[in-house]
Amino acid sequence: MKNPRQATVVGLYVSQLARSLPGRRSHELIIEAVLGALADAGVDPKTVDGAAIEWAGPGGVPGEVGSWAPYFRQPLAWTSEHFMDLAGARGLLKAAAAIEMGLCDTVVLGGGRAGPWAEDGTAVGAAMNLEFADVFGSSTMAQFGTVAQRHMFEFGTTAEQMAAVAATIRNHGHVNPEAALYGAGPYTVADILASPIIASPFHRLECCLIQEGACAIVLTTAERARDLRQQPVHVLGGGMEFFRGAYANPPLYRDMRHLGKDAARRAFARAGVGARDIDVFNLYDAVSFEVIRQFEMLGLCAEGEGGAFAADGRITLGGECPTNLDGGLLSHAWIGTAQLTLKVIEGVRQLRRDCGPRQVENAELTLVTNAGSGAQHIELAILGRG
């Protein structure tokens, strides 16, 4: 074993996902996810010494992850506190760093959300009260839209190409029993384009869901993972890149056109692989266009060629770059910040080779990305089958 402390994913869990889960509350769902992930790994909760888990109360201190210590019946050796550090590739990489540095041995990362909804029907926390954005009517979809519109203008990317991406990913969710929109399709490009415009150029069926649910993952050292019940999945590399605070100001394409390239370069160098070695892609799909942009970011096609690259069957199960096979944020689920972790979980499942009909044959490497041009930051991680 090259590095006995190499961070390894050994457990995962996803709760029921739905637009509404009557009678459920965030804290209850998160506890379910934490216990489910520990059971999946075969890890005793009393051995957990690191936590990156959303704290929704009651009791404890709002937002303080140390409030989870009594649940594990021992002091925690390490916690991560910022809400964006508790999910997805960013949370995974920071937990992995803590494990590999010896700050702790076993970390649970998790989160989720359930009612009540805001009066306008949007997810709690969707509006962040940003003084130089909200006053002008800015929104998450609109901020991704500014980047997409300029890409269309400069390179001729078409609405049909973006709709093809949305239809493909939504159809992945259509056949995934766990997805919130299981059985809701199948969708055609025409269906996508016929749905109402939400923020130009995006139609409703090109925008992510808003759901309730929770999920969690367990990480430990490669040495400990050898004695556990699941196929180990190693954290091989990762990278992050931040242009400014998320959604603080509308993004400009000239600033976002290369966002993530340096992060990807660092990630691939650390993992010792290239973009074309990846077997399964789990790309951030808050909107259809971001999938197109991220293929360009990864160097799988030239700038401006992402629309044609992603729209010709490459992202299907049998394609060259199978992408978001669980249905992604467009069809599987968006559950608050924990939606970022769902990308990691799908990647781990593919490497465990337990995805059933959507399994990529002989998958060895997967790439996970979170956020993107609209948010003006990005995180990505490369996972490998142990």
Structure description:
The protein is α/β, with parallel strands linked by helices and about 375 residues long. The protein is built from 13 helices and eleven strands. Helix 2 links the parallel strand 2 (about 50-55) and strand 3 (about 80).
Strand content: 15-25%
Query: Would you report the number of β strands?
Result: 11
H and E order = EHEHEHEHHHEEEHEHHEHHHHEE
| Helix content class | 25-40%
Rounded average pLDDT: 94
What's the number of helices?
13
Classify the secondary structure makeup into a structural class: alpha/beta
What is the overall shape? Answer: globular
**What Rg do the Cα atoms give?**
20 Å
How many angstroms separate the termini?
11 Å
What's the main sheet like? 9 strands, mixed
* Strand order in the largest sheet: 3-2-4-7-1-8-11-10-9
Identify low-pLDDT runs: none
Give me a quick take on this structure.
With 386 residues, the protein is an alpha/beta fold. It is 32% helix and 17% strand.
Describe how the helices and strands are arranged.
Blueprint: E1 7-14, H1 26-41, E2 50-53, H2 69-72, E3 78-79, H3 88-100, E4 106-113, H4 140-155, H5 159-174, H6 189-194, E5 197-199, E6 202-203, E7 213-221, H7 222-225, E8 233-242, H8 253-256, H9 261-271, E9 280-282, H10 288-297, H11 306-310, H12 328-332, H13 339-352, E10 365-372, E11 377-385
Parallel strand pairs: 2-3, 2-4, 9-10
Antiparallel strand pairs: 1-7, 1-8, 4-7, 5-6, 8-11, 10-11
Helix pairs in contact: 3-13, 5-10
Features:
17% strand, alpha/beta, 386 residues, 9-stranded mixed β-sheet, 32% helix, 13 helices, two-stranded antiparallel sheet
